[in-house]
């Protein structure tokens, strides 16, 4: 059986002189880079630098769009009118596209960040607004822009409705609920930091398409991409180990686009 999976991480999560992620080191392990577009983190110089580094290494560039929330790192719940949210999503993608093209690449997909990611799992209206923003940007770019998100989410339903490809994602370092959603970061065991635990979960997700939820139940998670958060403690070592162990187990690590 030809087993393969994409490995993605959040990059460019800094602002000015402050940097949260070790972008260059992470790009040695991942195949797709979710680049912050300035709303939860990132600035023009950071976006340009990360796009150049990703293009040099053949890593696919994705726009990680967010609510406008620099102070809260995009992890605070917000209520944004649908038309405004769609415009802001398109705006973020367009900004990153400039730097991606200048680096000889382009934006290959879109992934919401933080509170927006979690909100669009169940919120039909916010999911539709994000999908509309991606559709606008895809039309301007003249190509498809797949939407990376949680399997079975309202976001994927909305994206499919407007003709956008959907890519199901799983998380190597986040806790799961029995319904397949993520354990909120405000609750215990929301983030996994032990390397052996993260690697074991990654292998199981890639080979078996399942994960153990916080309540001990087995949850089916069929994913084409696996996320290791760039701001997780020791993220560089975790990403490197995950890639090495996947390769050793015969799982091909390659971009989904």
From TrEMBL:
The keyword Nucleotidyltransferase does not apply. The keyword Hydrolase applies. It catalyses: 5-oxo-L-proline + ATP + 2 H2O = L-glutamate + ADP + phosphate + H(+). CDD domains: LamB_YcsF_like (cd10787). It is an enzyme of class 3 (hydrolase). Coiled coil: none annotated. One of its GO terms (biological process) is carbohydrate metabolic process. InterPro entries: Glyco_hydro/deAcase_b/a-brl, LamB/YcsF/PxpA-like. Keywords: ATP-binding, Hydrolase, Nucleotide-binding. Its EC number is 3.5.2.9. GO terms for molecular function: 5-oxoprolinase (ATP-hydrolyzing) activity; ATP binding. Catalyzes the cleavage of 5-oxoproline to form L-glutamate coupled to the hydrolysis of ATP to ADP and inorganic phosphate. Forms a complex composed of PxpA, PxpB and PxpC. Belongs to the LamB/PxpA family. This is 5-oxoprolinase subunit A. It comes from Streptomyces boncukensis. The lineage of its organism: Bacteria, Bacillati, Actinomycetota, Actinomycetes, Kitasatosporales. The gene is pxpA.
């Amino acid at each position: 059986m030809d087993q393969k999976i994409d490995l993605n991480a959040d990059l460019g999560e800094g602002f000015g002189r402050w940097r949260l992620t070790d972008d260059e080191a992470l790009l040695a392990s991942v195949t797709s880079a979710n680049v912050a577009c300035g709303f939860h983190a990132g600035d023009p110089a950071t976006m340009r630098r990360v796009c150049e580094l990703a293009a040099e290494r053949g890593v696919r560039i994705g726009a990680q769009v967010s609510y406008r929330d620099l102070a809260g790192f995009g992890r605070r719940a917000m209520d944004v009118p649908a038309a405004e949210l769609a415009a802001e999503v398109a705006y973020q993608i367009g900004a990153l596209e400039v730097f991606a093209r200048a680096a000889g690449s382009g934006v290959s997909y879109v992934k919401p960040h933080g509170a927006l990611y979690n909100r669009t799992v169940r919120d039909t209206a916010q999911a539709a607004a994000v999908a509309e923003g991606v559709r606008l940007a895809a039309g301007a770019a003249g190509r498809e822009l797949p939407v990376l998100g949680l399997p079975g989410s309202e976001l994927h339903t909305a994206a499919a409705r407007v003709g956008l490809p959907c890519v199901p994602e799983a998380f190597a370092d986040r806790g799961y609920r029995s319904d397949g959603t993520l354990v909120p970061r405000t609750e215990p065991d929301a983030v996994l930091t032990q390397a052996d635990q993260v690697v074991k979960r990654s292998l199981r997700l890639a080979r078996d398409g399942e994960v153990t939820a916080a309540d001990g139940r087995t949850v089916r998670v069929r994913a084409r991409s696996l996320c290791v958060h760039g701001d997780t403690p020791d993220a560089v070592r975790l990403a490197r180990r995950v890639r090495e162990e996947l390769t050793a187990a015969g799982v091909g690590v390659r971009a989904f686009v």
